[in-house]
Amino acid sequence: MPGTIAVGLDGTEHSLAAADWAATEASHRGSILRLVHAWTWRVPDAPIAMDPEEQQRWATGVLSEAETRVVKDRPGLPVTTQLLATDTVPALVAEAAVADMLVLGSRGHGTLVGNLLGSIALHVLRQATGPVVLVRNPSRGSAPGQPLDEVVVGTQDGEEADPVLGFAFAAAAVRGARVRAVRAWSIPPVFMWSPGSMWLADEAGGLDSFRKERLAVALRPWRERYPQVDVIEHVEIGSAAQVLLACSGRAVLMVVGRHVHGRLDLRRIGSVAHAVLHHAPCPVAVVPHS
Is 225 part of a structural domain of the chain? Predict the structure, then answer.
């Protein structure tokens, strides 16, 4: 059965840009595109109030405009639309739980994370149990002589990295892009190293070689599953956010992980994901892991 890519719409150009990106992604993957808008009758704050029927017509128009836009150049794309009669955040969190990914618009660069993401996207990112992709408007073009041909993914040790790597390799495969797997590292304080870990690093030829070896091990099953995808193993000393952003020049998509346990606050997004969402020029996929 084909998968589903859901898009949360709010009538802005940012959400229409998200619908465009998601439509292209659905075409690549052979997926169904699901356009949703959450709407419930509320007393407007504006002095000129719309009655419930006017509000509902506007909400329905949000879906119709997006559907007309995405099928114009993709006549064979299967598209469904639904007006969700509930509050926006729980509606989008529920969509993220059942779709292959949820795509939302992002407002671009800003001083505060609230201005960058918007309060809705921020709350959805905190709670979503499935991948969420943030798309900016307008989409950037590639620099002269530099194509956008990489899916950049931040990696870390452990099985928890599997959903993140799996998402990145699948995204690269449908695009014919290569994966740039990035592992940033810093020299840990001496007291954090046990004799065993020091021995492993020494056997690997030093800390940098040790990190490269660990990255190669993490990537091995994904290389075998996606033999058609070229992979660049990028290991660099520095903060994870800085290294990832430095690799964004050819990125058509950036993929980062997010822990799903802990309190419902900004830290649940994670400092690396937070920085990438704030500054990366390309769409960013945030993939939950345990």
Answer: yes
249 neighbors 146 (Cβ within 8 angstroms): yes
CATH code of the domain in which 282 resides: 3.40.50.12370
Q: Which amino acid is at 61?
A: G
Residue 144 lies inside a defined structural domain of this protein: no
* Closest C-alpha among 233, 228, 273, 281 to residue 255: 273
**Residue 86 — very low, low, confident or very high, per pLDDT cuts 50/70/90?**
confident
Helices (H) and strands (E) in the chain, counts: 10, 10
Burial of 174 (0-12, 13-18, 19+ CB in 10 A): middle
Tell me the helix, strand and coil percentages in the chain, rounded to 5: 45, 20, 30
What letter represents residue 220's amino acid? R
- Output the average pLDDT for the chain: 83
Distance CA 179, CA 162 (A): 14
Q: Residue 234's domain spans which residues?
A: 150-289
Helix axis angle, 162-175 relative to 13-29, nearest 10°?
80
Tokens 């989409």 — which residue?
139
Q: What is the CATH number of the domain that holds 33?
A: 3.40.50.620
SS3 183: strand
The tens digit of pLDDT for each residue in 145-174 reads 678 999 999 998 766 678 999 999 999 999
